[in-house]
């Protein structure tokens, strides 16, 4: 029997239950994986609260790292004993567990320099950062970006990666402690949105021009400020909706604000091609193994603490990455 976190109805953190489950043997194309660590991501709350509907009861969590215990038929690219990580979406749901069956094609073999805890803290965040920095826009040295939630798990990776590319990073934060953390990881400037007007400060910091690209993981509460922070023909990348979904808007708004572009990408579409996924993974793991990008694990939980972990996440008490240690 394995320990797993499941929910039988959607709602707040209190719907999460720690249960004993039977795992079984891996079928064709599957492996039995013993987790060492599991990632805690904001996307997990969307499954739990029903924003992303799934059949119930359901497991939760889409990112983990551990050791392969057994192989199903037709699995050739990993072996028993390999250390691996994975991320995905519905096809990998159920990561909050001590062991599980997982599709073998989701697995990434870990370099020796990357621990399972580090991998659980950065596989989803790292691949997200990789496509944001390498696929969304042809960045060049001297470009300026606005990065919301700059002290979060993705924010800290993107800020460091942007600094490597010679970009100026303006990060939004909610406290001075988070501002210090963001600046220590590559942000040139920080804006405390709790008492500063974000768009106004961006204009001041850019001499009235605005930024080339905004990475907005907050959504509803920051949408207009993000648009108002862009230069003419700038790009808004909507990568999350932590404050709620962006309301419908007239596309003519984009013309009025400077012929702006808006995109809503999803990680799944950037790792669907195995070759592209391998390329992005190799780049981000390479940066981390070489020490060019640091992964900050600031919160560690036991599976039994899943309710508190979700409360901490949704109340913005967390910084950097959060993981469950198995």
From TrEMBL:
One of its GO terms (molecular function) is quinone reductase (NADPH) activity. InterPro entries: ADH-like_C (IPR013149), ADH-like_N (IPR013154), ER (IPR020843), GroES-like_sf (IPR011032), NAD(P)-bd_dom_sf (IPR036291), QOR-like (IPR047618). SMART domains: PKS_ER. Residues 11-324 form the Enoyl reductase (ER) domain. Signal peptide: none annotated. Keywords: NADP, Oxidoreductase. The keyword Oxidoreductase applies. One of its GO terms (cellular component) is cytosol. The keyword NADP applies. This is NADPH2:quinone reductase.
């Amino acid at each position: 029997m394995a320990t797993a976190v499941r929910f039988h109805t959607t709602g707040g953190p209190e719907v999460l239950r720690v249960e004993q489950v039977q795992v079984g043997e891996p079928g064709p194309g599957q492996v039995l994986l013993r987790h060492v660590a599991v990632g805690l991501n904001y996307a997990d709350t969307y499954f739990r609260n029903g924003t992303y509907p799934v059949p119930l009861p359901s497991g939760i969590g889409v990112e983990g790292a551990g050791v392969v215990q057994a192989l199903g038929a037709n699995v050739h690219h990993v072996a028993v004993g390999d250390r691996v990580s994975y991320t995905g979406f519905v096809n990998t749901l159920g990561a909050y567990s001590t062991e599980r069956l997982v599709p073998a094609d989701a697995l990434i073999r870990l370099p020796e320099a990357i621990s399972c805890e580090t991998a659980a803290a950065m596989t989803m965040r790292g691949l997200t950062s990789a496509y944001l920095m390498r696929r969304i826009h042809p960045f060049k040295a001297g470009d300026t970006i606005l990065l919301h939630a700059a002290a979060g798990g993705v924010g800290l990776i993107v800020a460091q990666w942007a600094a490597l590319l010679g970009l100026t990073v303006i990060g939004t934060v909610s406290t001075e402690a988070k501002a210090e953390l963001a600046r220590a990881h590559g942000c040139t400037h920080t804006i405390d949105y709790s008492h500063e007007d974000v768009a106004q400060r961006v204009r001041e910091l850019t001499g009235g021009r605005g930024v080339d690209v905004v990475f907005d993981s907050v959504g509803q509460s920051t949408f207009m400020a993000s648009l108002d922070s862009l230069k003419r023909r700038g790009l808004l990348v909507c990568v999350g909706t932590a404050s709620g979904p962006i309301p419908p808007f007239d596309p003519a708004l984009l013309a009025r604000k400077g012929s702006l572009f808006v995109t809503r990408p999803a990680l799944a579409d950037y790792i669907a091609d195995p070759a592209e996924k391998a390329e992005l993974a190799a780049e981000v793991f390479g940066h981390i193994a070489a020490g060019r990008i640091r992964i900050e694990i600031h919160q560690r939980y036991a599976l039994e603490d899943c309710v508190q972990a979700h409360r901490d996440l949704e109340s913005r008490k967390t910084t950097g990455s959060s993981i469950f240690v198995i």
